Amino acid sequence: MKRLVLACALVGVVVVAASHYSLSQARGPQPAAGAQAPASGMSFFITSVGKGDGANLGGLAGADAHCQQLATAAGSTGKTWRAYLSTSASGNQAAVNARDRIGRGPWQNSKGVVVAQNVDDLHSDNNKLSKENSLTEKGAVVNGRVDTPNTHDILTGSGLDGRLPMGATNCNNWTGNGAGAANVGHHDRGGGGQNPNSWNAAHATNGCSQPNLVATGGAGLFYCFAQ
Question: In 69-83, which positions are buried (b, 16+ CB within 10 angstroms) versus exposed (e)?
Answer without folding.
Answer: ebbeebbbeebebbb
